[in-house]
């Protein structure tokens, strides 16, 4: 006697966009990309990822993103499957292919390159098995930057305890902790969840957090408890160029609550003002609950760096022709 197997009927399968992706040496439509069910990235979340912004077809801070990718791979003992030149070449192929798709749909703009490397395929075993061929996946999508209203009015955040693991410096695909923490802010109608380990600031669900007090920009130390965002170095550079004091140190919950300004940073947020925290306006006096002057200077400097990056890439391309 044969029995029919049960079929999963809960929920729906989304229609994937008609975009190209890179999988293990081939460019293929995203909807057709397939991996083994025994891929350790699927079974264990045993892999790393990186997100690189591209403005007008130019990858921004590419070398810094590659350096972080290399650090994460080394921590997981996964060999780097491509050289930096190869990573760059594939990323540019995807940007060009995606730009053609977006252009045909009447959509143009900035893009995000997502890179993921897992340890590869093997029978299920927790040990970091050596000699596996890493699974390499890359895709490109339109980057949605913060709206004009979010920039002019700021965004709301909530706070929560940081319940994640103590190797947050690895950009791991094991992101269930980030999923839980981001859901906290989503359920509260806020943009991000600002987290604390005990009485000290760590980071947000998918952003680094910056505190401004008496004109000084403060960030938490670069250690194993936070992911060192690429904007760490970028914000320090912009502060130095603008003469804004900058320091990395432990920041208490009280300092966050009493900040003159709060900001988020990430690849897609760039730098973004937080004007409400746990339902209370951020800041003091006439500027309370409004984006502050330090944010305005850093945002302007960020846009200038993007423009200079595009100009440098154009000059390099012209010189190569």
What do you see in this structure?
There is one protein chain. With 321 residues, the protein is α+β, with helices and mostly antiparallel strands. It folds into 2 domains: 20-142, 2-Layer Sandwich (D-amino Acid Aminotransferase, Chain A, domain 1), CATH 3.30.470.10; 148-306, Alpha-Beta Barrel (D-amino Acid Aminotransferase, Chain A, domain 2), CATH 3.20.10.10. 32% of the residues lie in helices and 26% in strands. The chain has helices spanning 40-43, 62-76, 84-104, 148-153, 176-187, 230-242, 253-257, 293-320; strands spanning 20-23, 26-29, 47-55, 58-59, 111-118, 135-142, 155-161, 192-197, 200-204, 208-213, 216-219, 246-248, 261-266, 270-277, 280-281. Strands 7, 8, 9, 10, 11, 12, 13, 14 and 15 form a 9-stranded mixed beta sheet that branches. Strands 2-1-6-5-3-4 form a 6-stranded antiparallel beta sheet. A hairpin with a 2-residue loop joins strand 8 (192-197) and strand 9 (200-204). It starts with 19 loop residues before the first strand and ends with a helix. The mean pLDDT is 93.
